Amino acid sequence: MDLKAELQQCLRKDQVTDNETVRERHSRDESYHTARLPDVVVFPESREDVVRVMRFAHRHGISVVPFGVGSSLEGHVIPLKGGITLDFERMNRILEIRPDDFQVRVEPGVTRSQLNRELKKYGLFYPVDPGADATVGGMAATNASGTTSVRYGVTRDQVLELEVVLADGKVIRPGGSAVKSSSGYHLPGLFVGSEGTLGIFTEIRLKVHGIPEEVLAARASFPGIAPAVRAARAIQSAGIPVARMELVDARAIRQVNRHFQTHYPEQATLFLEFHGNEAGLQRDASFAEELSSDEGCDDFLFETGSNARARLWEARHHLVYAFLHGIPGKKQMVTDVCVPLSALSDSLEHACRLIEASHLTGAVFGHIGDGNYHALLMIDPQDRADMEEAARINAALVDHALDHGGTCTGEHGVGSGKIRYQRREHEEALDVMRGIKQLLDPKGILNPGKIFGEE
């Protein structure tokens, strides 16, 4: 079958390409996983385009993989069986903003920064911040979260309604405009985080929030991981409304100082952000400083101006950049687990010990307000020793998390990289998930090989 020619009968010719360069760009994400070329790349411009592609793919048993900007970290968008990659860059319209309802309806190719630029005109913002300028569709597919989830929640908490094209081309609209409902099964929550294995998003309705009157950022340095975690727990226990609560270890600060020629204290460091009004934030920051001092913090700095806040957060925001550009020839492998808060300090110190005992360069950081943390490991994907050591550390972190009631992935998703842990984490519930997949995608054409591996 001439797949390109057949699809061009369904769509315009310029919407379908088998150009080698375009296919190569869609063969990988930002992870270390092995690339695989799709046979063709399709650029839909409407729900009807997606329906036509899915009906064609279902009829011929051809795999389909949705693609946003390729910023995922577990191989989600790699087309393991070739087939069709659906790139949503042309479905990037903001369809409706309802400021009185604190809602917005968008197409899946809208990026986070694009959405927030438009929402700012109404005094609103979309809070989920995974770091990358990901698409809303991609964020919904992986249930992305990030630095602000400690206050605003994850993507699943923001999604009110979806328009989904199923494997056979049928269109459903689970959810609605009401902010809550007790009617029937919660299907939006099922599709969010399904990584393109159950359906293709063509519209997404989101909750949005008012831009806070004042934003205050703070950086606090501690003599070790344990006192930093204790201070974070004390701040949360005191009811201080923290919008971001990030931890970066001393190893990471050292690399940032080396690369950017900065002079931050090379200690375990908390980065905090508070949203509210000016008077309240000053009290919150003073109270947080007092609680931090009780745990040995000897360097607490806070700022309110946007430029000053950006400088204060520099070591956190530029962490990966400092390692990638400071260690040329290496790629990043970023692990991702989440544990109950009571197990966090022990888990972070365990991660630090693993890196200290390894020949790999790396660091530990995380969104410690919700127990989600990462180990950044610098690897050469062509070096067998590097890959085996990184896999060993990743496996040890996951085992430790699962032993303490945690999860193998807090925000990156399963993709290809976390398949091996699904049975241990979910036990018999994994069979229920497989049953849902079989019901909605009996031919196994939607992003095959992800979450469950080979069927």
At a glance:
The chain is an alpha+beta fold. Helices cover 36% and strands 20% of the residues.
Number of helices: 18
The portion of residues forming beta strands comes to 15-25%
Name the CATH architecture of the largest domain: 2-Layer Sandwich
Number of domains: 4
Structural class: alpha+beta
The mean pLDDT is 95
Defining traits:
4 domains, 5-stranded antiparallel β-sheet, 19 strands, 8-stranded antiparallel β-sheet, globular, Uridine Diphospho-n-acetylenolpyruvylglucosamine Reductase, domain 3, Uridine Diphospho-n-acetylenolpyruvylglucosamine Reductase, domain 2, D-lactate dehydrogenase (cytochrome), 455 residues, 36% helix
Structure description:
The protein is α+β, with helices and mostly antiparallel strands. It has 4 domains: 3-87, 2-Layer Sandwich (Uridine Diphospho-n-acetylenolpyruvylglucosamine Reductase, domain 2), CATH 3.30.43; 94-210, Uridine Diphospho-n-acetylenolpyruvylglucosamine Reductase, domain 3 (2-Layer Sandwich), CATH 3.30.465; 214-319, Alpha-Beta Plaits; 327-414, 2-Layer Sandwich (Alpha-Beta Plaits). Helix content is 36%, strand content 20%. The chain has 18 helices and 19 strands. It has helices at 3-10, 20-25, 47-60, 112-119, 136-142, 149-152, 155-158, 187-191, 225-237, 250-260, 278-293, 306-312, 314-317, 319-326, 344-356, 384-403, 422-426, 429-440, and strands at 16-17, 40-42, 64-67, 84-87, 94-98, 103-106, 124-125, 159-165, 171-172, 200-207, 209-210, 214-222, 242-248, 268-276, 299-303, 331-334, 337-338, 362-367, 372-379. Strands 12, 13, 14, 15, 16, 17, 18 and 19 form an 8-stranded antiparallel beta sheet that branches. Strands 5-6-10-8-9 form a 5-stranded antiparallel beta sheet. Strands 1-2-4-3 form a 4-stranded mixed beta sheet, with helices on one face. The chain is globular, with a radius of gyration of 22 Å. 49% of the residues are buried. The model has no long low-confidence stretch (mean pLDDT 95).
